[in-house]
Amino acid sequence: MRYTVTSPHVGFTGDVVGVPFAGGTGTVDTDADGGQAAYAYFQRADYALTPIEHAEPDGQEPEQAPAAALTPEIDPVHTFTDTPEADPDLTTLTEGEGL
Question: Is this structure's pTM higher than 0.70?
Fold first, then answer.
């Protein structure tokens, strides 16, 4: 059986126990070599495992959610800047403070 695996690390891209992840999700097939071991690891490591539906009887694939629906909302990222005009709370070091 095939499962969609969701990483506990939002947006993770890379390989975990031989399963490739992109954008925080991957697919494991428990019928493939190493699939049972990978599935067991994901269970122990608190990854979300969602069964993938079988193809529809008429040969059509089941409807999937659009990619945008799978992307979690992310809070805006605040970036560091060294210009006091951009960040009034920013303090700068002077020559005597460890530059």
Answer: no
